[in-house]
Amino acid sequence: MPAETLNDLLAAAGRAPEGGLRFVGRDEQATFLGWAEVRERALAACGGLQELGIQPGDRVALVFPTGPDFFAGFFGALLAGAVPVPLYPPVRLGRLAEYFDRTARMLTRAGARLVLADRRVERILGETVAAARPALGCRTIGELPAAAPRPVPVAAADLALVQFSSGTTVDPKPVALSHRAILAQVEVLNGFWPDTKEVRHSGVSWLPLYHDMGLIGCVFPALERDATLTLLGPEHFVARPALWLRALSRYRATISPAPNFAYALCASRIADSELLGVDLSSWVVALDGAEAVVPSVLHAFEARFSRYGLKPGVLTPVYGLSEAALAVAFSPIGRPYRIGRFDREGLAREGVARPVPPAQSGREIVSVGRPIPGFQLRIVGVDGKNLAEGGVGRVWTTGPSLMEGYLDDPEATAKALRDGWLDTGDLGFLLDGELYLTGRAKDVILLHGRNHSPEEVERAVEGVAGVRAGCVVAASWLPEEAPGEELALFVERRRGAPEEEIAALPEACRTAVLGATGLAVDHVVVLAPGTLPRTSSGKLRRSETLRLYLEGELKPPQKVTTLRLAGAVARSQLAYARTRLQRRGGADG
Amino acid sequence: MSLTHQETTILEGIATVARDHLGWEGPVTPGMRLVEDLRLDSIRLLTLAAEVENHFQVRLDEEDEAGIETVSDLVRVVGRKLAG
User: Fold this and answer.
1) Residue B27 Rama label (left phi>0; alpha psi -120 to 50; beta)
2) Is B71 inside any structural domain?
3) Domain-located, residue B32
């Protein structure tokens, strides 16, 4: 019988395992857990969870650093028929108050009945747990009662995982994925690199386990093919990027993914002294996804590490989103990354991608490749119709690993999923069957491979002196020549605010955002009152704000004269008509 | 605020870490807040924690780190760890 659920995969791998999980610490000491042992620990945890009263369908939150206990909790929950909800552990030296607030909201939003956490986290999680009040409280794996497990049969259609596509205090979006969706994704991923006589594939990942690229992209594929996956904690990678490349070399791994910022970090932060004896020639596929892929970063990474055996064609730009479980488009394996150059005016003003001749300057965009097997892409224009190749519009996708929906949120789900197609919220075009991304229609800030909500950033400056209440917009975008996306804050100044307050505004805003969210703002744009564009109902328009800013057109409203009034009426009628068309296509309104 | 001799040495070590790993060129004084004044986002806070541990050969855990807001907080915690 073919495997239909993650539980089936665990049972199969547990029977005759060669592979497993290898945990590497910051001191590069390794602990290996074969899949049979992962299964044993999961069964023990399952017994304990059931003894506590966990029922099939219950949500079990997991707050762990990368380590064996995460997997005991994760697979233990699945074996009990429950649904794991991985959440991120607190950041070092971070603001615990904000962390507690966010975590409490996610726990409540996911309806978590129990929180499993490691001892260090459990100690400080007390307040969060008190606020969110999961019925069964918080336990470490060690605190689970000993009891014989009674694994519950689960079906392909059952929920296997709830993951938050961004951790936030405002409007967290819990993505609900079925076993079927996850297995479909895993099957496609493993199909890209089958074992051969010469090569038995293995992976290395430092990605967090609460992130789809780490969990669905690395762990489940290794489980499915009984391979070995070497895991490093994300906090260890960020502190010492060389650990990643050293592990790849030491364990002769072939597959490893990371977001763009990680490749940039490696190119700029790793010293040769950390790479003595490092040989990257076993690395076959370096997936680059989870955020915008930047041409200069690809060049820099290859240039820096080719002398350590990194081959051309290894860097593989990809595209996906958690609402599709993970991947939607892949560059062809083994093909050197493809960068297109397009006429800037055509892209910005006409929404058309026109390749420019080699000698001419143009906007460089990396191809993220073709839809993966089983998936389709279409580009939709403002009128709701499919666009031909070269036309820039909203990217929609369909395939076998789409989410069931946003947990307990039929309204948000209905906006994103229509007739089996998912509105990715991203903008781009197709050329020769390959996808090129140009920006985002959805209001999401993507930094360091993670989604953040603009509301959270905007809220952070609410109390800053000189800020006009309710008149703040946060947005991120990828400037040309920049190594990654930049975060901008557009702030209307309060009428009558003294000059000193206005002068201090940018710094005060930066500090407030840093303290509340841990995010660094790259640009603070102070505007006259009334400048930020709004919908006819008065709602702020983030993507429009960004668009106007990038075109140098963010201006305060002019004084009204009769002529201007007539012009304004005509323009607003046009804008209203456009808004109605946009609403039909599902854009911001 | 006056520091002991050991605390001054620790402060200098932190300043070195800030310069070498965070690109912080300016002065590092005890009263500075890590987030607001040293401008540390989540990633850079992580880097600071890890590199301070490496520089002084100590391990900081969650309880040590809870409540560290300023440079002098960090100096004090490192001093405690060095004392053993």
Assistant:
1) beta
2) yes
3) yes
